[in-house]
Amino acid sequence: QIQLVESGGGLAQAGGSLRLSCTASGDIFARYAMAWFRQAPGKEREFVAAIGWTNKINYADSVRGRFTISRDNAKNTVYLQMNSLNSEDTAVYYCAAEYRGMGRAVIGQYDKWGQGTQVTVSS
Length: 123
What we know:
Elements: E1 3-7, E2 10-13, E3 18-25, E4 32-39, E5 46-51, E6 57-59, E7 67-72, E8 77-82, E9 91-99, E10 112-113, E11 117-122
């Protein structure tokens, strides 16, 4: 069973950048779709970006053009490069996995989750 650990969160200024990482262990990483979701205080968890096990990529409209998801199967790691950050990007960011998934934006498709990493953007 795959386990996920996020890192790279922190404090950034508006207009700045952060890169999140999610490292997996316990199973064959390349067979999983990987996704990033986020949850702001008082709001539901929402889709950010995903990359399928066949490398199909999907972004939420709110981050398309600013965020980039990528994966390195040799390092069992998925990344989220976040540029042009704004205050609305402040949230806890979660990494999620779906076995042989296509990288869809449906939260219920993902059954493996990391513990989350806080991203705070100051204006």
